[in-house]
Amino acid sequence: MTSKERHEARYQRRVAKRQAKKLAQCPNANDYDKVFSYDNLYKAYKCCRRGVSWKASVQRYISQAPVNVYNTYVKLQQGTYKSPGFYEFDIYERGKKRHIRSTVIGERVVQRCLCDNSLVPLLGRTFIYDNGASMKNKGYDFAVNRITEHLRKHYRKYGNEGYILLFDFSKFFDNVSHELVKKIVRKEISDERILAITDHFIDMFGDVGLGLGSQISQVLSLASANSLDHYIKENLRIKMYGRYMDDGYLIHPSKEKLVECLHEIRRICDELDITLNQKKTQIVKLSHGFTWLKIRFYLTDTGKVVKKIYKRSITKMRRKLKKLKCKYENGEMQFEDVQATWQTWQAYALKFNSWHTIQNMRELYYQLFLKEMEGSRYALY
To answer: Can you list the alpha helix ranges (DSSP code H) found in 26-86?
Structure first.
């Protein structure tokens, strides 16, 4: 055998080994009939109704759930299922306008079944561990814990001297390339019927982009930047790297190394049709503190990672309490709802090193609602 033939033989053995491992881990994820079985669809329906069963549209679906699920199952088996479209509306989150394309309960069931039984098992196994969004046993808290652990590891090696590169994707969902995500899906899935229905859901969003409001958008958006994650970890050799959807960070003792990494990240993003937000992409000295995922991080001289509530979040909550006071006085809401809002924020705030902030917010809350709290069983809180 020539050198080229030996190289090709080794490559084919590695491919066969990876395929065998994928088949062992996900034996049914590449089989349309097993993915869209009636049992899987019914399990997906039970998941989709959680937390939204009070809605009229969901209640109508629940009233004849076995029949509705069976009708969907028949359409899927016959290959005649089509998306009914979206409910489109705008919301304002932290002053930013976001366009939502919400799907009906019947389509959410199909998407949930597709994602849970095919896309997530097959695509999720290719994601790096520090990709913390929209995966089982991961999420916001996971991402915060990972960056905290990375900061501690950095301190044990280099102290609090070093830098962090923060980057953010601009209009991440709106700019996802359909050609790219379809290519990624085809690399992991070979069943033509699964590919056809996945393409159908992708094409419903138009020529480019994936809308906010559906599960398949979250999974495929994560996959669209997966090659960037692997390049940073494997080619640039940055171990202390993590990403949460469109926000990422790289920690390294050398600023020059991070400047080089930023140049490479820009190059890869251009290849993936991803646009970096120039205002939010920056290199910051660790000892000066930085903001990531609306949390202010500080790495002290003693190695303690201090997490503070984002200042704008505090201002927003103070304004919200005053608005809740007005709504309560006008009879637009009950005190129990005000109390639930306050306790939710307080539980969130207790995760941070912000004792004085919490005490000041409690003082404002007591000033606004002291009379109402006298007859409440939550008066001490």
So the answer is: 32-35, 38-48, 56-63, 65-78
Q: 178-189 burial, b for 16+ CB within 10 Å, e for fewer?
A: bebbbebbeebb
Cα dihedral 105, 348, 369, 360, rounded to 10, equals -150
Q: How far is 127 from 120, CA to CA, in rounded Å?
A: 10
Give the global pTM. Answer: 0.87
Give the residue-averaged pLDDT of 101-105.
87
* pLDDT above 70: percentage of residues in the chain: 97
Structure tokens at 298: 């500080």
Q: Are strands 96-103 and 282-285 parallel, antiparallel or unpaired?
A: unpaired
Phi and psi at 143, nearest 5°, equal -65, -40
CA–CA separation, 74 vs 45, rounded Å? Answer: 15
Rounded Cα gap, residues 129 and 325, in angstroms: 44
Predicted confidence (pLDDT) at residue 221 exceeds the cutoff of 80? yes
Q: What's the confidence (pLDDT) of residue 374?
A: 64
What per-residue confidence (pLDDT) applies to 95?
63
Q: Which of 91, 96, 94, 238 is nearest to 167 (CA)?
A: 238
How much of the chain is helix, strand and coil, in % rounded to 5?
55, 15, 30
Q: Among all chains, which residue has been given the structure tokens 């958006």? A: 221
